[in-house]
Design brief:
heterodimer; A: 96 residues; alpha+beta; Ubiquitin-like (UB roll); 3 helices; B: 8 strands; globular
Amino acid sequence: MAGSVRFRRRADAMDILYFAWVRQKVGTGAERVSPPPEIADIAGLMGWLSTRSPGHAAAFANPKQIRAAVNQEFCAPDRAIRAGDEIAFFPPVTGG
Amino acid sequence: MATIRVQEAPFDQAAETAALTAGRVDVGGVASFLGLCRADDGLAALVLEHYPGMTEKALGDIAAEAESRWPLTGCTVIHRYGRILPSEPIVLVLAASRHRTAALEACAFLIDWLKTGAPFWKREEFADGHSRWVEARESDDAAAAKWG
């Protein structure tokens, strides 16, 4: 599309999605990030993401309030992550 | 074979029930749960957000679990997203079986697991303009956990 920006997909890139108040606090619903190699699990990623902006810091201020999914499966904070994963952060679900 | 739909538009419970039993003579009963938008404390609307892709997968997994636990002839799960007004339907669960016990139990299981296992989030909008995200309830976790 004319005028669009094309991102080169880095080998270490991950797609991060945010929902509900986590999305509102971060200020975006999706972003692509390349964390350093020592970031190996969900808990570590939350800590690293929280340094990206004041909005991220607010969203991740209390990690116990946040739930996560890797590749569209709910997961625990100690779940390992790798390049190419689709990772989502959100509050506990309230459907039904 | 479960029918799973995630949609913005309203749905027709009678039509969905008819579709579940059409052309079959082995269905002894259909149990249903219809979740409605309740207007507490001056609520003007619920706005539902979900995780496209994961939502359909999670609902399909929950339906498959129900079908593995009870001898169902079919089941249907339809969940809406977007802006929903008081008294409008939000979610429909149907479970059909030869006998009532399987249908009733599977229906209760489906809605209990859906509430804690499908990625939906509700925001309440009030008449005075303010809004707030609904918080998850421990009683919903307990209801889901009792099925093991």
